[in-house]
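Hi again,

Forgot to attach this to my earlier email, sorry! This is the prediction with zinc ion bound. I've pasted everything inline since the attachment limit keeps bouncing my files.
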Amino acid sequence: MSTPPETLRHRPVVRLMDDPRLASAVAHATATDEATLADQIAVTEVAAPPFAEEARAAVMSGLLLEAGLTEVHTDAVGNVLALRPGAADVTPVILSAHLDTVFPPETRIAVRRAGDLLEGPGISDDGRGLAVLLAVARALDAGAITTRAPILFAATVGEEGAGDLRGARHLVGPSGAGRDAAAFISIDGAGLDRVVVYGLGSRRFRLRIRGPGGHSWLDWGLANPIHALGRVVASLVALPLPREPVTTLTVARWGGGTSVNAIPQEAWAEVDCRSACDEHLERTEAAVRDAVGAATAAENARAERGALEAEVERIGLRPAGATDPEAGLVRAARLATEAVGVDPVLSLSSTDANAAMPAMLCTTIPPAKSSTPSLASRPPPQTIWTNGKYTKVSHPTRKIR
Ligand SMILES: [Zn+2]
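Structure tokens for the complex follow:
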């Protein structure tokens, strides 16, 4: 999936910059900057909360058609797709941006402009990406550029939060239009310098422990779900976590019980785990499930009567992955960034591109020096282990979902 088309591998970007067709395209993009900003504002002002992207999808369909693209349609999960044919009958390169925002439906979405500054919920993430799709399509036409591979433009659903990359995963999955794509490029947010080559994965869980419940005095001795949950949290806090690459575990929410004089019937918690390595996430998930099982068994053994039951529900799953920093696609991105006078920064983030990245090789990771990561000992920029060597990446703080 990450293999770039031949053209990217063998054609120096510098020579491309001297091509008059590219010069025309760049000149068009520069001259129509105000129109691109107008698109950005227009799509941003159509609300696209999680799982309700239809209105913005409809606007984007119209704009992709206006930009001269063909076969504009909406796929089974709500992604808006459009094609720009290539010269060769080969698999397409996907250029994507996401439709959804993190903002709930009641958020007032209006973009305010003060000089060069645009302010509004989602104006950058990913109003900018959507506007860039349109600008690229128009600029390629303005330069009369025919790419070798077709370009599949994709405005995806479900990139943020609980969306779990559902749009991108469908797109490159077995029944998606991009299942055999040669490359996947996601434009996510503003800025020119970041080239995301590592996909931060995550798994999220809701833990539930239930019991009969009763009066705190009359029924004392019953198994107590909150007491069991306390044991779960204590053991998760003490869990040794891999450091290469850094893997995190956060107990983020918890609750339960109905009254101060009642043994609760239920306790629950939500847990977030992140890593750039799926294997670490897999092992961390197993540890979470073991902790819940052990804590429930311990509380049942302590109690005089009443058995607790526990369940662990997975409520979030984003695959982790990595693109080789030396891959042609990444080299092309770095050279193109340098060609416009900006130093590229390889970085780690969670984006639609996670869905298309190969899994990172974690099996050859050397043993960690210390088992538990601490904020003090985690160096920015962090180092990540992939494909047999360490590579420095920027600290993953910019995109936190
Ligand atoms: Zn985004």
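Residues 6-10, 363-382, 394-401 have pLDDT under 50 and may be disordered. The two ends are 25 Å apart (CA to CA).

That should be everything now.

G.
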